Give the backbone structure.
Amino acid sequence: MLTPKITATREVVSLDGIWKFAVDTGAAVDTGAAPWAGPLETTLEAPVPASYNDLFTDPAIRDHVGWVWYQRTVRVPRGWADDRVIVRVDAATHHGVVYVDDRLVAEHEGGYLPFEADITDLVTAGDEFRLTIGVDNRLTPDTIPPGTVTTRADGRLAQSYMHDFYNYAGLARSVWLASRPAVHVDDITVVTDIDGTTGVVDYRVELAGAADVRVRLTDATGAEVAAAEGATGTLRVADAHLWQPGAGYLYTLVVEVTVDGIVVDEYPQTVGIRTVAVDGGRFLINGQPFYFTGFGKHEDSAVRGKGHDDAYLVHDFQLIDWIGANSFRTSHYPYAEEVMDFADRHGIVVIDETAAVGLNKKIGGGIADMLGGAADKDFADGFGPKMQDAHRREIRELIGRDKNHPSVVMWSIANEPDTMSEGTDTYFEPLFALARELDPTRPVTFVNVMMAPPNVCRVSKFADVLCLNRYYGWYVDGGDLASAEAHLEAELRGWEGMYGKPMIMTEYGADTIAGYHSVWDQPWSEEYQASMLAMYHRVFDRVETMVGEQVWNFADFQTSSGFFRVDGNKKGVFTRDRKPKAAAHALRARWTARRDDQTGVNGR
């Protein structure tokens, strides 16, 4: 699905701003009529984009389980009379419906990917219409991510889930009104390669309607470097300027759709010429070994929740540059497209992850149960065909949205699923096959949970790269870094000996209270966090097939209420408002030295 853009043939109107807002109490917002059938009877207003949970002081809104409704009036520009009119929702967490006046025009499941509706036949250029969007935050055993809804004794609904971040909900990303011609570019797929010093750009254009296609590739200055006719083809760029970590050079593929020689649609697609490959125990970008440094992140900030914010986008990437990192994982869901575009432009490497987090019933029992209990007899008991169908949809939509981003070097199809139990290989093998069918150019992985070591995990055989989350020194060997170091290295050696694949530590870290200090290795202190990370780094430097380290987490983030987490997860090396802890300075010393090494940003 192409992102709406303003071109010579297309226009876009942002619908961001203040919308009417109402919580559905089950009685159609207490009006006696469907919420979309007329103006919302409410005094509440909410910003878009933003999660709604932290906006209001009423705990019934923060803890609400079920539908909420957003509404505003939209005027179609008068110049759009001959165009198709589209409503696009960048994300609705987790189930969204869209009404134009009282007509349902779109419905979508999955809270972190876009959907749209062609509303041309329901609206008139120059006139207004009522736009109502309903968002349902409920997670069930069949959704991605999964959860369970129960009813309390007083009738209130309660949501439980097995992932360790708050279930923020609402319209956390932008909503758009867009125009496009009746005959238009429907999709573009770009695959790049390198032949000596020549860049190779294979392209495929899909159209809505019958027309001719011509393309031209321009460099960063706007100069044309290649051109071709036809909906599919190959462009060759002499002395190509490669996209690489730390240097996000982008070309632009300008696609023109013509009828009888007249351009009826135009769409520009950015292109980064680069290659990605796995070679034995090495991860290669442009044929050179690459070592990941960076973080698992979250879309999370105070008040906004998961609401996208351009100021935080810029500041977070500034901190990533300051600390010397070169990568991050979109833990544990696809991030806003603005984030991916920014990574493309600035040469930040991305492991792109689906929203398949919490596919592990043992995690729902708490950390102690997760590490100490026995494997479930059958993974499919509760995580079966309906969830697998939802999982397939997530993989298809993620790759469909992000396939052209040069910053994306690998797909992660799940975070910390149960891979011990019978049935896990049957569940995951076709999902790996689907990802490779949709995109044979990138490695595919998943993130392995600590209770599934190499002799237990049934799924790692399908992965191109081993991504591991490990907490020796915290949940295991807590406070005992000497034992933690021995146990960590022993396990990594086990993975290396069994598979010989590249390994990335995609999570490692310790909860840390900013400002808490100790002369001892005291858990929760800033000193302990720094010492624990240093221990991991000593081990990584001794294991040849380690190709990356991504600390958990970039910044403190909110989780569900309870006694295990006090005001959220504190494993960030930055506080939730992005102030550095001592570990941030220690990481900066290590990572900037690596970045500045003579081998360059691609070197180990």
